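Annex B. Sample input.
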Amino acid sequence: MLHNKSFVKKTKSGKITKNVREHYLRDDIYCGVTICKVCDSSAARLSGSASSPILVLDTNVVLNQIDLLENPAIDDVVVLSIVLQEVRNRNLGVYNRIRALCSNSARKFFVFSNEHHKDTFVQDMAGESKNDRNDRAIRVAAQWYKSHLGGAAHVLLITNDRENKRKATEEGIPAETIEAYVKSLDRRDLLDLLVRPASEDVNMEEVEDLRPSKRKVIYAEHKPLSEITSGLHQGIYHQGKLRVNRYNPFEAYVGSESIGDEIIIYGRGNMNRAFDGDIVAVELLPQDQWHEENSLSLADEEDEEEGVHLVPGSADDAPRTTNLVQSAAGPPRPSGQVVGIIKRNWHSYCGSLEPMPMPAGDGGVAHALFVSKDRRIPKIRIQTRQLGNLLSKRIVVTVDSWDCLSRYPSGHYVRTIGEIGDRDTESEVVLIENDIDARPFSSQVLACLPPLPWSVSSEDLANPIRQDLRHLLVFSVDPPGCKDIDDALHCAALSNGNFEVGVHIADVTNFVHPSTPLDDEAAQRGTSVYLVERRIDMLPKPLTEDICSLRADVERLAFSVIWEMTPEAEIISTRYTKSIIKSCAALSYIEAQARMDDSRLADPLTTDLRNMNTLAKIMRHRRIERGALTLASAEVKFQIDTETHDPLDIGMYQIREANQMVEEFMLAANVAVAEKILKHYPLCSLLRRHPTPTKEMLEPLLRTAASVGLDLDISTSKALADSLDRAVGEDPYFNKLIRILATRCMTQAVYFCSGDLTLPEYHHYGLAAPLYTHFTSPIRRYADVIVHRLLSASLGIYKLPAIFQDRPQLTSIADNLNYRHRNAQMASRASVELHTLIYFRKRPTDTEARIVKIRSNGFIVFVPKFGIEGPVYLTERSEKGGGEWFVDEQQQKIKRMDGSISYGVLQKVNIHMEVVEPQPNRPKLQLNLV
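Annex B, continued. Sample output.
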């Protein structure tokens, strides 16, 4: 049956055009209920038993109650196509979650195409809003289910819309609110999952007395979006992402392109209910209220309740500092206040409930405060009927609203993770907080894998696209214990005196085909995640550790980049080929280094290693001469007990020549592949860029360097690299510390689609390379999988998948890869912090540290031996006898007013490290001056 839908549209030139679309209606769309006598029930998902009604959900229930819907107690659910469409338009995150429920074979969720069924399609009515039309369509579908199933099953419309519920009742459709339905299940724990309307918010201080007259305004009202938009255009407001200081939750920054600097947001009142990661509109404060860098302090756990009582500008609206005097040196930094939220970054948070006495009586609703593990997140008010069970647990809570009359945001309980302090529980918290998907791979994903045991077949050997390189002396060099080996090397001396050097990368795309469940899962995960005690794979283990892993003494499929190089590392030619290799050795960095250093060894493998290392040193020197930066990071290495998984030892990760050798050839392969794919596909190549840091970003580094007598030239990456090379002192660790500080001033390297930017914007600042991409780790990075497909197509091996014609989709993929890559980094750091706590809990330690940042009430130190950073307080909390302190920002010093003690940036100090718990369930590593 054909139905024409017409609508009017305004063109860019202002003309009004009428569009007519054909809309096909069918009579063969089934209801999805197993007991139905009319429909084909072979693909039915809903049981429709008399004891369990079939639920038809309206849009707002899906949008607001997704945590409840994900609970297994909610089943036999009809999700209408019109509801799905509306959810997709309004919240993509919720849409993805409801789609996942509908595709989960273990759940009874059924998508019914009501917009294409001849009996449930509704035509537009004159004067009817789109929202009213959608509500009517939902009621028509519920009515159809009721009459279609007759008395065989009970159909219930679930809606929190009073008007929709009233009309449904008048039309003879059974309808309930979600809360009424949950109460009928007699599952008190499910009531905790309910999101309550913002109008039901109550102030925790007023739980005993809820009279409206008692409530007072705590925060300023947010400006309406129309006023914000106008203010942004006029330059009154400034837009940016709010980032809260990890050492002080009362201090945040908003990077503003409109003023070319960061705006400091100081105090909870000025933050005005904004969360870390929110996109906000900021109004600058009068200049006499701007803060100097040195006036910003470190906040301790005892400050937790400060700065939340009054509207911005109050005397209480900041954490306290004690006995401090600041100098007036240094210009004040732009400071502002949040006037509106443009885009919320609310998600699920992990933590525990603030300890409180159990209320009298049994099982009533208790009001509790949730304390996130992340100090940047304010406390969240929740209601719970299971207080006794939750006080000793790590739980997940979601924010629902934050009223300007409420000191804290309101949220609801989602689920319990486990016992507080249990290592597995705390590791799970790390994954949830960083949105890492650690679920087992689904049966659909695993079905895409070739059967085991797998080996190179005769068809592979006979394939003309693949070159047989099994005769080459190929080897891999990786961290000790590495099982997911995705790169190998060879270096063969040629008769003309040159070298043939090859980088061989696991041919993952031979097994991961476009648009399969395996490919979709890898694209969503984006990257493997490396925690201290475990690895969360992007691809299933049969691929990562067996089929694709370039292990020793087995034949494997590879994608190879092969150069002919002179002894001076000049490239004569480059070729790319699919290949078959057989690695002769899987070496660790330590083993490879030991071979190169042992003068007694002269076997072919050691000779190739030495030749390759010689070439790598030349390449590295040439790259640095071009302006590549040699930066440093505080990578920590743990020795883990194989049985208990507890840390036995901790220290800085050591970089050897063998590491640098492998890195040099991986960089060269990535550059070569970037040039090849961009030449063939200038509009749809996936590349990686590193934007040049602004002068403002490098300002902290310049200030620190100047305070110790260093003059750093930041005019180009080459100038900065040369300056860093000259930054040496008597302290052997001095140069590395300067490089670590430089690393922290850099922008983030990101993936992008070549068609989205101009050629100068492709530049990679850190590598001083005009073009760069990721090709060498397809087992652990999805970006490399995309690049392998581009390279295959550029060589005429395979046709380029259709998705490469869809630039917006490619941009979306790049954005997800950047998000996943960043989250993986944050999860790795959080895992290090967790195991650091576990290690030092039983091992209080005295050690040496270096001061890296001066603040008004103390400084932040870096501990070289352990790769740890943290605050040290110079207040009455840490200094016997107190005394006033003076901050000299120009000299980066903090000294006592009587001149008896002073501390400067990069100075050595002796500290005592121990784990303390100033707030219940929130242990931290405390650093005190010895």
